[in-house]
Amino acid sequence: MKYSVIHRGDDISFQLMQTFHTLIRERGLHHDEANPDVVLSIGGDGTMLHAFHKYKDQLDTIAFVGIHTGRLGFFADWKPDEVEMLADMMGESAQQNDLRVVKYPLVEIQITTPQGIETQLAFNEFTLKGVDVTLMAELHINDEPFETFRGDGICISTPPGSTAYNKSLGGAIVHPSLDAIQIAEIASINNRVFRTLGSPILLPKHHHCDIYPRAGQNILLSLDHIIMQRDDILSIRSMVAAGKKVKFARFRPFPFWSRVREAFIGYEPIHEKKP
Ligand code: NAP
Ligand code: MN
């Protein structure tokens, strides 16, 4: 089993990477940055996003795992003082040639410009915003006109990304076993000309949404942490990525809802059982 490490760049993450290299070599794993089987991200969820985009063309063969060096990360769920336990479990799974993984759905977008169609993948979400003025766009679902949007922007997120930007927009948290994408509005303006539904919606697999920005607009497009300014976008189609998922190595169980509770609510049970 080959591994690679991505770290946030701070001293603590760097030190932890050095420790991990030593521990994991003792357990027989080889470092291979180009073709790893397991990618360890040391830092936060943002570091995991970097890891994802670095290896997004190898998703079939790679499983990710994360150690958090800040607050509890959503995807970086191992603590720094558990690094040896993680190395033990990785070593064991390498020896037995048995790597357990969970798979999460992604969003695929197809950007149509006068030059052609570009395809991109996002792990958390993609967003579309206006640069100088509010975004104006027509939204179609499954080739039927749905609404005319005007406002700050539109966020289309994956189930694992539903706890990120989408959550701040009042979107629902979606269990990653559901193959769906969520469309959430960012401060829509509603009047007689521009009418939007106002509620976040979920699209299942095989449905698609097309966004047609008003021609000539300067647009800010974000894919996770990557932001680009574009004025050549004719339309953007989004859908659940077909046949592409991101895999996380599960060396121990940590259910999604426990993760949500620990990240957002806290560890303390309200009703302590009295003896
Ligand atoms: P950032 O500004 O450092 O990240 C914003 C926060 O989102 C950080 O606390 C980050 O955790 C957390 N986060 C990222 N993915 C998450 C997930 N799937 N579930 C729960 N929390 C998550 O920028 P960044 O680290 O490069 O991350 C880019 C992401 O920031 C975007 O994909 C978007 O989801 C999010 N964002 C949120 C808002 C908002 O809520 N208003 C606005 C813009 C962007 P770490 O500190 O562990 O990295
Ligand atoms: Mn961050």
Overview of this protein structure:
It is a single chain. This protein folds into 2 domains: 114 residues, Probable inorganic polyphosphate/atp-NAD kinase, domain 1 (Rossmann fold, 3-Layer(aba) Sandwich), CATH 3.40.50; 138 residues, Tumour Suppressor Smad4 (Sandwich). 19% of the residues lie in helices and 40% in strands. The protein has a 15-stranded mixed β-sheet that branches. Strand 13 and strand 14 form a beta hairpin. Helix 1 runs parallel beside helix 3. NADP nicotinamide-adenine-dinucleotide phosphate (NAP) binds next to helix 2 and helix 4.
CATH C-level of the largest domain: Mainly Beta
Bound molecules: NADP nicotinamide-adenine-dinucleotide phosphate, manganese (II) ion
SSE order, one letter for each helix or strand: EHEEHEHEEEEEHEEEEEEH
CATH topology of the largest domain: Tumour Suppressor Smad4
Give the integer mean of the pLDDT values.
95
Question: Kindly, what is the distance between the CA atoms of the first and last residues, rounded to a whole number of angstroms?
Answer: 48 Å
Number of helices: 5
CATH superfamily of the largest domain, by name, is Probable inorganic polyphosphate/atp-NAD kinase, domain 2
Whole-number radius of gyration? 21 Å
Percent range of helical residues: 10-25%
| Strand elements, count | 15
Rough shape? globular
The CATH architecture name of the largest domain reads: Sandwich
Pfam family, one: NAD_kinase_C
Keywords: ATP-binding, Cytoplasm, Kinase, NAD, NADP, Nucleotide-binding, Transferase
Active site: 45 (proton acceptor)
Cofactor: a divalent metal cation
